[in-house]
Task: structure prediction
Amino acid sequence: MPKDHGIGAAPKRREDLRFLTGTGNYTDDINLAGQAYVYFLRADVAHAKINGMNMDAAAAMPGVVRIFTGADFEGVGGLPCGWQIHSKDGSPMHEPPHPVIAQGKIRYVGEIVAAIVADSLEQARDAAEAIELDLEELPAVVDMKAALADGSALVHDEVPNNRVYDWGFVEENAAATDEAIKNAAHVTTLELVNNRLVANPMEPRVAIGDYTRHNDESTLYTTSQNPHVIRLLMGAFVLGIPEHKLRVIAPDVGGGFGTKIFHYAEEAFVTFASKQINRAIKWTSSRSEAFISDAQGRDHVTKIELALDADNNFTAVRTHTLANMGAYLSTFSTSVPTYLHGTLMAGNYKTPLVYINVEAVFTNTVPVDAYRGAGRPEATYQLERVIDKAARELGVDPIELRRQNFITEFPYATPVALEYDTGDYDATMTKLEEIADLSGFAARRAESEKNGKLRGLGVNCYIEACGIAPSNVAGALGARAGLYESATVRVNATGGVVVMTGAHSHGQGHETSFPQVISEMIGIDESQVEIVHGDTGRGAMGMGTYGSRSIAVGGAAMVRATEKIINKAKKIAAHLLEASDSDIELKDGTFSVAGTDKSIAWGDVCLTAYVPHNYPLEDLEPGLEETAFYDPANFTFPSGAYACEVEVDPDTGEVSVQRFAAADDFGNIINPMIVDGQVHGGIAQGIGQALRENTVYDENGQLLSASYMDYAMPRADDVPFYEVDHSCQTPCTHNPLGVKGCGEAGAIGSPPAVVNAVIDALQSGGHDVTHIDMPVSPSRVWAAMNG
Amino acid sequence: MFNSAIGKDFDYREEFMTQVSMTVNGQAASGDVEGRTLLSTFLRETLGLTGAHVGCDTSQCGACVVHVDGKAVKSCTMLAQEAAGATVDTIEGQANADGSLNVIQQAFQDHHGLQCGFCTPGMVMSAAALLKENPKPTEAEVRHYLEGNLCRCTGYHNIVKAIMAASGQDAEAIAAE
Amino acid sequence: MYNFEFEKPTTVADAVAALGGDDAQALGGGQTLIPTLKQRLNQPGKLVSLTGISEMNGVSVDGGVVTVGAATCHADVEAGAGAYPALAALAGQIGDPAVRNRGTVGGSLANNDPAACYPSAALGSGATIVTNTREIAADDYFQGMFSTALEEGEIITAVKFPIPDCASYQKFLQPASRFALTGVFVAKYGDNVRVAVTGASEEGVFRWAEAEAALSANFAPEAIDGLSVSADGMVGDIHGTPAYRAHLVGVMTKRAVAAAH
Result:
């Protein structure tokens, strides 16, 4: 029988009660007395020198409080980049300043040129139209290959060839990899594009700065996945506000998918300017603004080569990737194509040699940073597409080719610096074959053909690395942040528990799943546990929610803190029961002395901690509150196998996803209902990337897919019901819960399955098509069929 | 803690201001609006009903869906004055009289039909409109009806299940087919 | 949005009067106009809502003609135009349910978006656009994208659609906007077949003469075999090339003929 509480149970989400009744508290729902509004005048050209600005007329317009420009931010820090990469030659990456408001030069359409603060938003907008800009337009750099060419216009004058870095990984493998490819029995080569995406959480970003003069404190309300990180970056690197004078609150967050990790100019602006005018300032992004100001995702152009020996064993993988950074280095942008991508290029396979070369490039486009999966979808897509192509070239079954090359012994040290602790790739593949009913595919294909449609099957594997860690190793590789998580567990006098976690839900249901762990450990009802997050004023410094890390790192910190609580509570119980602490057992919320009928309830022990009359004060402090900082010893490595079946309409090239199955190994599961939901959402984003979504700039750097009129979000009738399974469980060996994380898997594993299926369908119809770049739109499929 | 009646002290906009009255969730509501004031703005800022969310500016996402005279509309693409005299129902008025979740809301919770919750008010209001028109929709009908409601979290799977369950159908069996 | 004065008359005469002033503009359901106003791409001094005019609202059938009041929303056309099923079906494919509860036929035709659905029904049916001052044949009404025969201040009050023997609208969706990437409306009136194409051409909705001739001789999908429209002048954008749209015109026409039977 399924559990009804604790780890592995699926209680209904408590946060749903407010979300379903319209009483959630999202940042835009907050209005502060007397607040002013800011409208950002954003560049409408991609590349230009700012020779002058005339703001006289605008400043005199009704309601205008003050207009800020780049000059107001001279002497203030720029937005920092959180990961320093070194090129192959040992030189550090180019890291030009990233100003809050453009200083002297515009580098992308959407960059903030001026900020108009007024009593109302419309007044601010009116004034923005009265600002006269004297711009000298420069040629825009949009295409990465053109950007790298000698003589190209420069996004930053101090960065030659617009090249941010030229990274090789692992450099020691380079020569041997070249040699293996030269001597291979077969080499499959594929050039592909990982299309640029806009994350599009349904809640646009919002920032409210509120300076209070009486205590000289600044509060920022913001739509962030990690308010503590924002406080550190903004306080220490941009505005110079000490942490004790700066509070960052992220209330209910309406989705993030990575794009709400980063520290943005608008956050720094409202915090800075609120102090200048001594009044709260609110900014709410419109969706149109989001398309040109939220950091975008992916945008890699890759050539991958897979070498095989005469027995079809993989002998080497070599890739060269151009990674678009956009116009500035967003917070974690530099780590995505490098340590979050190159390290995954071994995939699920025992390929002995892997070498990755990544050139990161500045262009006059919106900055690019982590989006759900961040580097790992790019790695998976290349590898799983090239394996599929190799299987076709060799005339072997793509599943068997994968199986033959699976890593089967753990722990396994990859040639790209990771050590996989556990996994069973054969088990997830076997599970996939079952849940996807692959044996029934031939019959379904015949049925589709009867209806004039081409049916294809695409299968692939994926591995991801979650919970980047440990901090010292990441630091040695260039990370400028810690990668631990914190938890403070506060037990109240009457036994209720408050957990203050540095993780922060933006849809993941932490308020429901985290109490399940506490309930399991202590044996009290989940309703006795409350989760506090999203507020730097409550709880210890933490790192937030991204990279599928919350339960693996944040949950582990909560376990560590709870263990400390239990140890202390046992000492109190031992004192009260006149026994030795080593004899005390805690079960179902009751402490008992082993082998006796002596016991005392959880609540009585908690009360004693705060009313310490009969208490060992000489040995033990009163109170029951503990904090733990957990820094993982390694990444976690979720893995799985995905299958997609599509139908292609040969008349129009339209692709429809008929079936989708996912067999994942997430290690132990806290709440299977929430895990299923995470996988569903990831799959839809992957299908969106594969078939619909694309971020397109014209040669002048104007965004053509700048609203939902042109950026095709997946809708309900674009996707089927998904068959998901996570019964294959190889628990993580190095965190106390044995969990691996599940947030990104769906988005990582699904794009190659879709594209593999389309290629399979076209080949079944006699079309000699070996690759179509994403999004595999009807127009592109039709062109490929009629190539 | 937060005052929703903002802007009043600073309001300069005498021009084109007019009073608008309507019935919102069964109660009389009125306030001063401009010509350009959207129904979503009136609900969120004047009445403090922040359940309807604004997720786009091109009438695509559906997070702002409310019912006007019983019909689903996008409140961000309707002027407040167009709703003068109308009956408006929002997510805040959907729960049962005793405060418990109504059938659709409960189905969304039971089937995990929401994650971040931002699209949810629009989804619930669209689902209510669908089930009023079509009490036992097929899976395809549900998916098609949601063409004006975007969700980025759930992949729609559990939303479709929730709506089918709210219509009294066996959602688990349908999803497993 | 820039601010504007709002007026909601209840008669056509009052609406005409209200539109007489400077910078006044008619407002149908607003499903296109309001997003445009949000971008500040338009600055009317006054918006005159036409949705409160009862004489402009509703669907009626008389003598083989379906007359749709210009302020009738798409959902009401879908529900009320049962006498002309292809027209009802077209109305049911516009936007999404909430948009269909606001958007109006008059608003769509007055705007004449090159990818909108209604212009293909009007042109494909040889409809008559009725205004406060005159009646305009559909063939004379559409004058290129976003351009029509309407004069300043002239209001569409109704559209008369002759009911064909059979008809069908086949729409290939632009996946983001849900407008037509290419949509084809085919209607058969005795020996006369009309084929109107929306979404494809840079000139907006147009009649495909070769297909009309072929289908008038033989109303069967095969009649389209071998016919094609030129890619010259077709829209090319991030969703499809001109050649792709030209190809879709043929595919959608065939499908419309097959479905019309």
